[in-house]
Design a protein that fits this description.
mainly alpha; extended; Tetratricopeptide repeat protein
Length: 197
């Protein structure tokens, strides 16, 4: 009677060859059971030796004394204590220029070009709230109020330090909620806009 051992060995070899060809081989060598590789009994492998760790000295039982730090010197009275204003990053400046290009394209009635400028502005500086406000205006002009509202919400989060931009965002959101038949929410945003300068 014939055994299926040579057939299974052939299948194993073919599958291993395919694994090598298609890069599906394991990163570490795989040990095969002895009965699969030869008729000799499987050899025992030695377990890996773990180096002994030396005990760490115990922490001192006395409390830790804090050292006196030198006192910071006060600036002379003639120097104002306010820090110099931070210069905007090059990414922010480039993003602002792209927003301005988008605003011009939107004013000319070209929402597709404006969309490209605003998307580039977001890629250059993802924290430019005016770019998200521009995207909201584009989607409003394309008559997609839900998408416009998504971008207006992002602009609202990013424009908290820009009262003029925030007011414009609130008014846009009020208009969008009116379009979406949510008059109470629209009124809330209109009231928020009226409270800003």
């Amino acid at each position: 009677m014939r055994t299926s051992r040579p057939k299974s060995l052939g299948v194993l070899l073919i599958s291993m060859a395919l694994a090598v060809v298609f890069g599906c081989t394991p990163k570490r060598p795989v040990l095969m059971p002895g009965s699969w590789t030869s008729s000799a009994p499987a050899s025992k492998t030695e377990p890996a030796k773990v180096p002994e760790q030396k005990p760490q000295p115990a922490a001192p039982s006395a409390p830790i004394k804090e050292k006196e730090l030198p006192q910071a010197q006060e600036p002379p009275a003639s120097v104002p204590k306010t820090a110099a204003p931070k210069e905007p990053s090059p990414q922010y400046l480039a993003s602002v220029q792209l927003v301005q290009e988008g605003d011009r394209a939107l004013a000319k009635g070209d929402p597709d070009s404006a969309l490209g400028f605003y998307e580039q502005a977001v890629q250059v500086d993802g924290y430019n709230g005016l770019a998200f406000l521009g995207l909201a205006k584009v989607w409003l002009q394309k008559n997609v109020p839900k998408r416009s509202l998504e971008f207006a919400k992002k602009a609202e989060i990013l424009l908290t330090d820009n009262p003029k931009g925030l007011k414009e965002t609130y008014l846009l959101q009020s208009f969008l909620y009116e379009m979406l038949n949510q008059p109470e929410t629209a009124r809330t945003y209109k009231n928020k806009a009226q409270r800003l300068p």
